[in-house]
Amino acid sequence: MSANQTQPSATYDSAFLRACRREPVPHTPVWFMRQAGRSLPEYRKVREGIPMLESCMRPELVTEITLQPVRRHGVDAAIYFSDIVVPLKAIGIDLDIKPGVGPVVERPIRTRADLAQLRDLTPEDVSYVTEAIGMLTRELGATPLIGFAGAPFTLASYLVEGGPSRTYENAKAMMYGDPELWADLLDRLADITAAFLKVQIEAGASAVQLFDSWAGALAPVDYRRSVLPASAKVFRAVEDYGVPRIHFGVGTGELLGLMGEAGADVVGVDWRVPLDEAARRVGPGKALQGNLDPTVLFASTEAVEAKTREVLDTAAGLEGHVFNLGHGVMPSTDPDALTRLVDYVHTRTAR
Fold it and tell me: Which position among 18, 22, 47, 245 bears the catalytic label?
């Protein structure tokens, strides 16, 4: 699919894409971040003995894992199974995903000379993505596939810190102390991220989500100055495809307006801010996605339904609403609780 081409008709009228476009829907659409993964026994079975990054590069395996929650839960959209560091690995960054730790970078980026590690991403670097999405869209039919990527700030945090961090002291030290190097790093990551999203859209993804998982660590003034330009560049790069663009971060209540401003069509909201208040912060012209606390799923069915009603009630006046959790599905979540939740939202919101 090339720029300016219309959506494939099979998914165009899906509840998910209609909600993203703020059009009337037959029911509130539901999908879950991390719906494919460790909460599913069938996922653990097919992944057994296969390292995470390798599993992201096997098209048949990616297809099976992406389809598992669609089959099991009846969600309104699939999300492409991958990891935010896949494009970095694809351009030759020496990194690995260590179980129980997360992505670990062998040579963190700390100086201008280190930027040389970040070459442009080409479609050939991720040919397995194109192949997997082709297989998926054939299988999914009218169910939309969401492509995704990590946002420049979150990728930069991993690259500068060398792995996960709670304080981001190295990344923030570069942002405050060498703003030119920081800007060049994020700009380069914006190009890589945009290229990765373009591959997914051209292969058939119906929407894309930019995960800025760690943006909540920033004050609004720093986000506006040091992060928003790079995220906006990513969103601009894929604008002409006409697919909905979702923007999500955790702990970003103070940043919701800015995250919408960066160019998203849909702003993801974690559980800390009610959706009606989030709508006020984001402003008109955007759909919202969220925002049940993932830990609610460990409570009784009655408690899950009561908290779900709260979310749906606060979303009642929104222009467009995609039901989701306020963060990813936790690994020890009972899959049946997710299936019941999808059914409850569909039934409760049937129009």
Answer: 47
Active site residue 12: no
Q: Is 158 a catalytic residue?
A: yes
* Phi, then psi, of 248 in degrees rounded to 5: -140, 140
Tokens of 122: 């080409």
Q: How far is CA 209 from CA 150, 165, 289, 323, in A?
A: 9, 23, 11, 15
Q: How far, in Å, CA of 152 to CA of 206, rounded?
A: 22
Cβ atoms of residues 272 and 251 within 8 Å? yes
Residue 1 CB-density burial (10 A; 0-12 exposed, 13-18 middle, 19+ buried): middle
210-262 pLDDT, tens digit per residue, is: 999 999 999 999 999 999 999 999 999 999 999 999 999 999 999 999 999 99
Distance, CA of 312 to CA of 348 (rounded, Å):
9
Indicate if 47 belongs to the active site. Answer: yes
- Classified as helix, coil or strand, 6 is coil
Instruction: Considering the candidates 12, 21, 58, 83, report the single residue annotated as catalytic.
Output: 83
pLDDT band at 8 (very low <50, low <70, confident <90, very high): low
Residue among 38, 110, 281, 348 flagged as catalytic: 38
Instruction: For residue 154, give Cα distances in angstroms to 43, 160, 161, 189.
Output: 26, 10, 11, 10
- Would you call 280 a catalytic residue per the annotation? no
